């Protein structure tokens, strides 16, 4: 009885992992711009890989003991995917990669640069200085 319940949980984890990975891949191909495409692999695909690895870990732990390597891979994937997505987004902002015009919201880093004046250079009251 317990084996059939665990097999059901394993099957659910593998199917959920495949579904999340598929949805993340669709997001990567169909979203409008780089910033939106970044969400596909960083969120849903990571969750898909995590579900698949947890299902695999459960299966092989039933066969012959706990499998530490797969759990370490899962933890490593959940730690590194958000960090790499953050670094890609910061690099795109640094290079001022423009978002799609239909995208709502605009990061402060991409707003047009206005001339900045030092305190000494700023006009004061009715001063004839520029």
Task: Give your account of this protein's structure.
By secondary structure, this protein is mainly α. It has a single domain, classed as Helix Hairpins, CATH 1.10.287. The protein contains four helices and no strands. The protein has helices at residues 2-30, 34-37, 39-64, 68-94. α1 (2-30) runs antiparallel to α3 (39-64) and α3 runs antiparallel to α4. The model has no long low-confidence stretch (mean pLDDT 83).
| CATH first level | Mainly Alpha
SSE string: HHHH
CATH fold description: Helix Hairpins
Number of discrete helical segments: 4
Strand content: under 5%
Structural class: mainly alpha
Low-confidence stretches: none
Largest sheet: none
Q: What does the average pLDDT come to?
A: 83
Whole-number count of domains = 1
CATH architecture level-2 label: Orthogonal Bundle
Radius of gyration equals: 24 Å
Quaternary structure annotation: single chain
Proportion of residues in helical segments: 55-70%
Task: Report the end-to-end length measured between terminal Cα atoms.
Answer: 84 Å
Main attributes?
Helix Hairpins; elongated; 130 residues; mainly alpha
Compose a concise summary of this entry.
This protein is mostly helical. The chain has helices at residues 2-30, 34-37, 39-64, 68-94.
